[in-house]
Every structure is written in C-alpha cells, then in structure tokens.
Amino acid sequence: MRLTALQDTFAHEVLDLNLWKDLDERTLNRLRIAWRRHGVLLFRRQSLSESELVRFFSHFGKSEVIVRTDWQSRNRDEVIHISNMKDASGRSIGGLGSGELDWHSDQSYMTHPATGALLYMVEMPNEGGATYWANLQQAYDALNEETRSQIADLEAIYDYAKRQSSYDDEAPLSASLRRKTPPVLHPLVCVNPQTRRQSLYIDPSTMVGISGVSAKKGAALLAQLSAHATQPRFVYTHHWQIGDVVMWDNGQVLHRRDHFGEATPRWLKRLTCQLSPEHHLIPASRLYLGN
Ligand SMILES: O=C(O)CCC(=O)C(=O)O
To answer: Which residue, 24, 55, 219, 253, is most buried by CB atoms nearer than 10 A?
Structure first.
C-alpha cells in the first residue's frame, strides 16, 4: 500500500489496495493512522458488494443507521443511496437529487454525530457532480488572534430543518423526523484528541445561529467563518470515477457537491460510522433548549 497527496492538498490517495480482500491488521492500522492524519482518503478502481463495503468500514468504527430510512438500501440498513435515479415504479432509489449541495458536515444535526463517512461511486454523469472537501484544522490555524478569542467559548445552534430545506427534492420536515432531530449545540472550536490542537467545527448548511448571541450578529459571524473555512487554499476538489471510494472524517473537514444534469443518472452508496473519541475529533454536543 502506498499513499500520495492529491493536488498537493491534505487529501491522500491510497494505492495498491483491494478493499474487497481481507486486510491484515498491520495494513488496517496504517490506514487508521493515515485517515486520522489526512482526514480524506481516496481508493480508486474498487468493486464492492454492499456487504464488502460494510465489512471494510467496520474496521474503523461502529456503523450508523441514519435517520433517513427512506434512503436505505434494501439489502443493508447501514448503506444509504445518494442518487437522482428512480426505480420502475418512479420512486427515488435514494436521496439528495441532482442539485448543488452547499458545504456541510454529515450528522452535525445529531447529539452524537457519527463523524466517519464513506462514499462509493457506482454510476455517474460525464459532467458535473464534483465533490469538494475543506480542511477545518487548516482553516482554524489561519484565523487571526482576535477571531480565535471571539469564538473560543461560543456554541453554534444546528437544526436539521435548515439542512433538509436545502435539498432540491424534499418536502418539509415530517413530525417523525423532527422528533429524531431536535436542534443541538456544538462548540465552534474543538480540540483534536491526538494532536491537542484546536480546530474549527462548523456546518454552513445546518447552523442557524449562535447561542447567546443576537440573530444578526450570530448570522454575520457564521457567514464570516464559513467563507473563511471554504477558501480554495483549504479545499480538495474530487472529480469522480466509477469505482472510487472516498472516506472522510467530518470532525476534520466539510464537504459540498456541484449540481449535475437532472436526467443523467448518478448513484453513490454511503456509510457512516461512530469514530473513537480517543483518536478523532468528535464535537461535544448538547440539546439546544433556547437562549
Ligand atoms: O453526492 C455527493 O457527491 C456528496 C453527497 C453528500 O454530500 C453527502 O452524502 O453528504
């Protein structure tokens, strides 16, 4: 197994590894360390059944069954489909349609976010649909001292209703989804347990304000932090190929996607898992009970 930096960014490609094979503990440990260090890993030319995907990802943390059961695979509850494709009866086979997805961090609307995530590309259009990852550690390091002390003790409010309203194929939040996703708080600054370095934790698609700060000032500060964190110098751009597996740590990076043609099929399989708080930055969380 070899590692190589992608476009001179933090993201790395892992070469010479077939993920459908049994991987020995030494290789798995090298992968775990590489993932913690780099935040985004790419494996090209993979060919995996859903069971093989689940088995591979189980080496990194406990699989999560997400709140969107309507996006679930029929074979494995842990696998969801991200697709604009429809089945023979005209029903969507998955979620997120074909529109642009703004910067976000998976699961940030949960009190215990499962921060490990993996996408596997099955079917894709010739144009559009690139995915981007932005490094929150690098973004924090580049903040000035004034902003660092301004945000040191602040918590942002996260609401799934805002996230869902940004999807191009969605109805308003149902009562049952609302019950599973009450608004939560996460600190704007978290500590990486391995390096002890401080890092930003934000999600522009889901944050609706800052606890204890006026709506206007909170919105302005969140917009400023989001614009800062997603500058091209902190971003890796991924142009997909069929068979790509990308895994990322939502405690370290944000991601977004370009739109693509509504009529062109695109289909990814996604898994999420709970990562170890000893080795990965997991944002502290609590329910938001109002200012
Ligand atoms: O479709 C993509 O490329 C990205 C999907 C995504 O943002 C997600 O699954 O959270």
So the answer is: 253
Distance between Cα 149 and ligand 1 center (Å): 33
* CA of 131, closest atom in ligand 1: 3
- Output the CA 38–ligand 1 centroid distance in Å: 19
Element (H, E) at 139: helix 136-141
Q: Which amino acid is at 113?
A: P
Cα-to-centroid distance, 67 and ligand 1 (Å): 16
What residues contact residue 232 under an 8 Å CB cut-off, 6+ apart?
A: none
- Nearest CA, atom 2, ligand 1: 257
pLDDT in tens, 13-70: 999 999 999 999 999 999 999 999 999 999 999 999 999 999 999 999 999 877 777 7
With a 6 A CB cut-off, is 36 part of the ligand 1 pocket?
no
Of 197, 173, 195, 199, which is closest to residue 186 (Cα–Cα)?
Answer: 199
How many Å apart are CA 207 and CA 192, to the nearest integer?
21
Q: Is the CB of 255 under 6 A from ligand 1?
A: yes
The answer to whether 61 and 41 have CB atoms below 8 angstroms apart is no
Domains located in the chain, CATH noted: 2-287 (3.60.130.10)
Q: Which two tokens stand for residue 191?
A: 């500590």
Prediction pTM value: 0.94
- Among the atoms of ligand 1, which is closest to the Cα of residue 119? 9
- Where would I find the beta strands (DSSP E) of 159-266? 184-187, 189-191, 198-200, 207-210, 235-238, 245-249, 253-257
